[in-house]
UniProtKB/TrEMBL annotation:
Family the entry assigns: Belongs to the EPSP synthase family.
Keyword set, alphabetical order: Amino-acid biosynthesis, Aromatic amino acid biosynthesis, Cytoplasm, Transferase
Catalytic residues, chain numbering: D316 (proton acceptor)
Listed name of the protein: 3-phosphoshikimate 1-carboxyvinyltransferase
Job of this protein: Catalyzes the transfer of the enolpyruvyl moiety of phosphoenolpyruvate (PEP) to the 5-hydroxyl of shikimate-3-phosphate (S3P) to produce enolpyruvyl shikimate-3-phosphate and inorganic phosphate.
Annotated 3-phosphoshikimate binding sites: K24, S25, R29, S172, S173, Q174, S200, D316, K343
GO molecular function, one term: 3-phosphoshikimate 1-carboxyvinyltransferase activity
InterPro entries: Enolpyruvate_Tfrase_dom, Enolpyruvate_Tfrase_sf, EPSP_synthase, EPSP_synthase_CS, RNA3'P_cycl/enolpyr_Trfase_a/b
Biochemical pathway: Metabolic intermediate biosynthesis; chorismate biosynthesis; chorismate from D-erythrose 4-phosphate and phosphoenolpyruvate: step 6/7
Predominant place of localization: cytoplasm
Amino acid sequence: MKHSIILSKHNGNVKGTVQLTGSKSECNRALIIEALSNGKVKVVNVSDAADTVTLSGILKGTSSESPKVVIGTDEKNEVEAIEAKQETETVNIGPAGTAMRFLTAYYAISDNDIILTGSERMKQRPIGILVNALRKLGANIEYEEKEGYPPIKLKGSFEQLTSKISIKGNISSQYITALLLIAAQLPFGLELHIESELTSRPYVEMTLAMLGQANIRHTWTDNIISIPHQDFAETSLHIEPDWSAASYWYAIAALSDEAELFLPGLTPYSLQGDSVIAEIMANFGITSQFKDGGVKLTKEAKPVIRKIFDMKACPDLAQTLIVVCAALGHEASFTGLETLKIKETDRVLALQTELAKIGVKLIENGQVYKLDCSERFIPDSIFINTYDDHRMAMAFAPLAMLINKVEIEDADVVEKSYPAFWKDLEKAGFKPEYQHN
Ligand SMILES: O=C(O)C1=C[C@@H](OP(=O)(O)O)[C@@H](O)[C@H](O)C1
Ligand SMILES: C=C(OP(=O)(O)O)C(=O)O
């Protein structure tokens, strides 16, 4: 049952300190690395994002969904391997896209028979490119329902056939990350040829950097990433606060009259590509000062000049930025939105539908999407549908800087990446009211 939440208009002066949870992207990688490393790698500052909690539970065996997994059978765990192999277990990853893709690769090289499934939306999010790549490497994977989509059945009979494979880079970088995460465990390593343009590139860089922290070496020349077979070193992986979550605070500041916000733990040298939000929001008068172990945001009134934003490297910021532009009546254009259609919902369609409620159009013209604010208005109240997408709820919440009453359809949807979102809003002077109807 969904409960909505109501935000009354904020007084315009936003002040506060908000400690953001750990990055979902970093944490999901760290958990897979930890699991593959047989205890050598430890994760510090685990995120409380629901996607991460689910993945952690599955990998650590504390979730009802978690099977016993054995990777690379040696004498010590042979008995365990035989026991674990006896039946096919089903793992349900819910709406967690990265976890679905990473676990596909992880289970593909395990000795278990696993059915990996997810939410209804997950069954519409393509996985064929990754499955084909893993099959070429030697994995035995079948589709349980629709060809190219979860659920999938992974058989514990991996024998590496080749180390060289090609993969399309323009649909989701998560397929590439999934392969890179297991690469060092493959007996012959991996030489991955990325065909076509690479989307979401900073996420691949994040993967390689985190593997590097665990002593996994790679080379990346032109479009070829190579990782030889090698072992993890003993180390701890520290998870930074989530920059995608920080983007909603930048949005709130951008729509405020005055802002003074402190977000501890964020640095400009983040592994997260979404740290580019600091640079993007400078266009909207937001100054980011990195000091005292975090970032301080302040606001200066200033006309927005930049007209084109390319979101290919930071797709998760698209909703945040487009809503801010629409709210300000700034008729910007956006490129790099192609992958938005296969995320938690079709985010382009969801944006178009919700922005229509303030008279703004997001018009598709080939690769370019343009905002038309000619009929924009600020209603007295608005109801925002969330489409089972955390980022729809969080990207539209900042409208409460302008609109008297903003009601968001599903309060709990934010749990996927930022469970404390509504509580944190209270720290900055919002008064969210849960509707228990
Ligand atoms: O690797 C990751 O952690 C992610 C990669 C991106 O997906 P795509 O590569 O599918 O764009 C991003 O949208 C997602 O939220 C997290
Ligand atoms: C796309 C996202 O997540 P995922 O693909 O992991 O479901 C997201 O968090 O915006």
